């Protein structure tokens, strides 16, 4: 199996990808080791290889310490924590942690916000995978395709970062610190 075949296989998987919806997230609170196992399994598609880990115990502790993630109750993480961690793991690939903190605005992810995130993220993944499938089937140069996708991702990352920078400055204006 050559690179194009492996990429095509990966893209087909992504085109059908459906991260867990709110109702599919565990309802009972989980300890950190359980959280790590659950999220690693849920996010496996986004790992570069088997050694790439998107979430560790230290990362979770840092998110809590920096106010990006609410404190767990009695060392247990709720459905809201899992939803936030799912979003953080996917978004940290393109945004800084301070930008993610601005985006989440110190709030827990409720079912509505999580659903909006999943819809946007799943749609973007499926679109990219469909484009990639087409590129593989038509025999396009895969290096050029990677370049195109990376350039698009960078432009969209820059736009999102600009929006979040401006939003982060709004409270200063409201406090009269313009």
In percent, how helical is the residue content?
Answer: 55-70%
| DSSP, total strands | 0
Q: Whole-Å distance between the termini?
A: 59 Å
Over the alpha carbons, how many angstroms does the gyration radius reach? 18 Å
Order of helices and strands: HHHHHHH
Given helix and strand content, the structural type is mainly alpha
Query: Roughly what fraction of the amino acids lie in strands?
Result: under 5%
Q: Which of globular, elongated, flat, extended, rod-shaped describes the shape?
A: globular
Query: Treating each run of at least 4 consecutive H or I residues as one helix, how many helices?
Result: 7
Most strands sheet = none
Low-pLDDT regions? 173-178
The average pLDDT value, as a whole number, equals: 89
Secondary-structure map with pairings?
Layout (H helix, E strand, L loop, with lengths): L2 H13 L16 H11 L14 H9 L13 H13 L5 H8 L6 H27 L4 H33 L4
Helix pairs in contact: 1-6, 4-6, 5-7
Short description:
The protein has 178 residues and is mainly α. Helix content is 64%, strand content 0%.
Task: List key phrases describing it.
64% helix; 7 helices; 178 residues; disordered C terminus; mainly alpha; globular; 0% strand
Notes on the protein architecture:
The protein is mainly α and 178 residues long. The protein is 64% helix and 0% strand. It is built from seven helices and no strands. The longest helix has 33 residues, at 142-174. The protein is globular, with a radius of gyration of 18 Å. Mean pLDDT is 89; it is low at 173-178.
